[in-house]
Amino acid sequence: MRVETVVEFEQVSKRYGLRYALRDVSVRLPSGRIIGLIGANGSGKSTTLKLMAGLIRPTAGRVRVCGAQVTRRVSQRVSYLSDQDALYPFFTAEDLIRFFNRVFSDFDAGRAHAMLEFMRLRPDDRVGELSKGNLGRLKMVLALSRNAPLILMDEPLSGLDPLVRQSILRGLVSFVDLDRQTLLLSTHEVAEVEPLLDTAVLMAEGRVVDVRDIDDLRGREGLTLIDWMANRLGQPVGGPEGIADGR
Amino acid sequence: MAGTFASAQPIYLQLVDRICHGIVRGEWRPGDKLPSVRDMAVQAGVNPNTVQRVYMELERMGIVETRRGQGTFVTEDGPRLEALREARVRDRIESFVRDMTEMGIAPEDILDGVRRALDRKGSDAMEEA
Lengths: 247, 129
Hints:
heterodimer; A: 247 residues; Rossmann fold; six-stranded mixed beta sheet; four-stranded antiparallel beta sheet; globular; B: 129 residues; 2 domains
């Protein structure tokens, strides 16, 4: 596993009016991994992903992706799956593949068609007529068909039934290329996603509480991801430096 | 192969254990090719990096060999596989004996209980046949 940094936050804050969505976050994330962003609603997960995708700008601090400061143009290097439904309802799956292929130079139409088949979707399926589960699958196809070094997924499993969640996770393992890509996803399905993660980032109240490798948590402390969350969130949130020894 | 990883042991070690179990049971024979890293990851529902680590660990244990560009194969080293089998049997028996001893069961009662369980199993098998 390489240990290059793909994302770096340096004292990043994001404020909306008087409310801080993110507070003085400094963190580095290693490349070539699947990383889970976990924490309660409103803990800052979506804001963190949007900052990496260049969709919003930090109020203070610096965000770097692949060594370069993030601007709107980072979208050429970052594939972002939104938690919102932002696809035109009258587009077919094939229309979307053609559209993405025009917009993103790293889009792999061959892979998109292979994934479509894997997910049992048809090219002439219309977005507006898809079930919630199939829409979730289609968004996954589009996000993973790009050869972008960084793939971000905001709540890709939210509101989907267990069988759809499983098929989406299987699709993810089948098609992500960790020799060239890093995948960051936010989720509440912690137990379900844990076997797929290399690393977890725990957030609370706009701060990064801790970043840990899953095997390290289990091997050294005998904790599953849920045990660890319960342990860490049971303590006052004060940034990683405020916490001496997690046990 | 897919299953949960409920125990808090590292996931890669649980997968190492499952594969060893499969080899001892003869699901994979000496010289058989194991699934590619990606296929094993999909089957087991884990991250490809984890499978990479599993194959490295199995290789370190001398149970599989990775041949460049061809994949990962179960070793044809008979004595090594026999040692794996023996170690697993010994582990399971020792942990069983430890449990029984902790419950305060005397050695002769343990033996007697095992004998009776085996007899029952034998007569069940006869009835089925």
